[in-house]
Amino acid sequence: MLALKELRQHVRGDLHIGEPLADHTVARRGGPADVLVIPERKDDFCRSILYFQKSDQPFRVVGTGSRLNDGGAGFRGAVILSHRALQGVSVTAGRVIAGAGTLLSDLPLDIALPEASTERHAEGSVGGALSMRCCSFCSELYGQVEWLELFRNGEARRVKPDGFGEGEVILSVAFRLGRKL
C-alpha cells in the first residue's frame, strides 16, 4: 500500500483517493483513479513522479485530459495532473517557452500554428500534443520545437527534439518564433 502520508509531506497540492478523473479533465471523461495528485508547482510535480517511481507504483501523467479515454474504468495506480504545476507561457529571445500543462489555445499566434488545427486542439495541453503526436497538427507543432525540458533520471534536463523518447515526461518546451509550418 502507498504511504500517502509521506507523499503529502513532500508534495504541495491536492491529493485525492478514488477520485473520478471526469471531475478534473476538460473532456469530463475518466473513471476513478486510485490516487489523484494535482501538484502545485513544477518541483512538486517532479517529486510526485519520483515518489511513484521509487515506490514502484504504477502512475500516469495527464495534462488536461482532452484525449483521455479509459471507458470509465479509471486507473489502477496514480494519476498525476500537470495542468496546474506546468502551465505558463513566456516569449524571449526569439522563442516561446511553454509549460507542458499549458493549453494549446494559450500559445501565442507567433509560432505560426494553423488556425483550424488550433481550434481542434484548443483544450489539449502542449505536453500531450508533443507526447502523442496523434495527427499532422501535433507532428507539425513538434517540428517547431527548439528544445524540451524532460524529467529524466530524477532531474530536469533539456534535450533537443530528437532526444525525446517514448514514455518520458515533458516539463516545458521552447518553440522557435517566425518559422512557418
From TrEMBL:
GO cellular component terms, semicolon-separated: cytosol
InterPro entries registered for this protein in UniProt: FAD-bd_PCMH-like_sf, FAD-bd_PCMH_sub1, MurB, Oxid_FAD_bind_N
Domain FAD linked oxidase N-terminal: 34-150
Domain of life: Bacteria
GO molecular function list: flavin adenine dinucleotide binding; UDP-N-acetylmuramate dehydrogenase activity
SUPFAM superfamilies membership: FAD-binding/transporter-associated domain-like (SSF56176)
Pfam families: FAD_binding_4 (PF01565)
Gene Ontology biological process terms from the UniProt entry: cell wall organization
Gene3D superfamilies named among the record's database cross-references: Uridine Diphospho-n-acetylenolpyruvylglucosamine Reductase, domain 2
PANTHER family cross-referenced by the UniProt entry: UDP-N-ACETYLENOLPYRUVOYLGLUCOSAMINE REDUCTASE
Protein name: UDP-N-acetylmuramate dehydrogenase
